[in-house]
Amino acid sequence: MPSYPTRSLRFLDKLEAETAGKGHHAEPGPQARVALDIIVAGAGLGGLSVAVALARKGHKVRVYEQTVTLAEVGAGIQIPSNSSRLLHKWGLEPFLKDKVVEPETITFRRWENGTPVGLTRLVPDFRRSFDAPYWVVHRAHFHQALRDLARSLGVELHLSSRVKSYDPTTPSLTLENGAVHTADLIVGADGLKSLARKSILSNTKETPPVSGYAAYRATVSVDQIAADPDLSWLTSRPNLNVWIGDNRHVMTYMISGGEKFNMVLSHPETTEPHTWNKDTTLQDMRSHFEGWDPALLKLMSLIDFTLKWPLLSASPLNRWVHEDAKMLIMGDAAHAMVPYMSQGAAMAVEDAAAFAAVLEQISDRSELPRALSVFEKVRKLRTSQMQEASLINAKLWHFADGPEQRARDAAMAPEVQGIHFIESPNQWSDPQTQIWCYGYDAEEEVLKGWRAEN
Q: Do the domain assignments include residue 66?
């Protein structure tokens, strides 16, 4: 697998006003010359994203989801510029309304006292450089917005529809109630425990392996933090803050239009989730960060409920498309990754945009296998590189105090000091990594792949 283009790996061995002023309606764009009947299995962020992208191009889209009520669990999620640019084109902004927050900076802080060791300026830099904002939002609000947009585009959403089996050759899926549904194409966007993945790769595991890390996720009222003189600075500006230390880090930012304060606390974990004691979750969380920055510990004391999530990371798969070229997988079903580049959901959005773009190129159904092959080739490269980048941050952020930690902090120091730099181990700031990550155009890249095959 080729290494992704970033200087951070070596360390380990258009205008804001124009973008903000665009309209609040979906950009229809050209319609597909061959309109297809497409089934999407799964109505998470990835499934709804591909449903929206396809419906915008004139395809008939039916989504089958196993849950009774369509809702998204979790807390905060980041929408980086490579994703928000696509979402803006789809017309999602009015559905998010005032729920997103646009952080001004990302500050990396020393674990024991909060001293800044790295700084990425997001506003106005990312809008100016990548023609799109960097947002943070509650997962539930993001999910609701995609659902509402999908329905406005005529997508059929079928709940209480658990898939029992797939027939990739027909193609069709069979629900637990015995109903069989056929289509021209089936997209498996059914997440980490993907049944669709098993239908394409019979020898794959049901769930990607644990990464050796887990994360506690929690939210606290912004008003509660703002009322504390020792913590109010955390809510005075809409910024991201990340405390980094030995094998652990804590990421914080405001969500829900600035009403909630989101916290993600990553730590080493090798045990299986079924062994975790839910009764001691809060106590266990705090014990992982004993001796850390007093301000951070005080912030953690405000948490009265948390959920612990295993962090999973899959190796790149051999294929995403069934040999009969009538069924494929995307999103977490195809490329699970640790969240240390905050790009998991963004990769699903890119998948959706790229898939709709390559289908738009075919003028006859006989070209569908070639379109799927191009999509698979282009997206496998991009997502495998992002998986690698995410694992790199698992090393960069988690040095114990010592020579590696001091070298990292020294290399990031110009960011904090406001001194010009040409490279950084901070992947959010490194100029080359920024272009590769946030300047990536998923639609244009898949079209380059299509042109190269024709």
A: yes
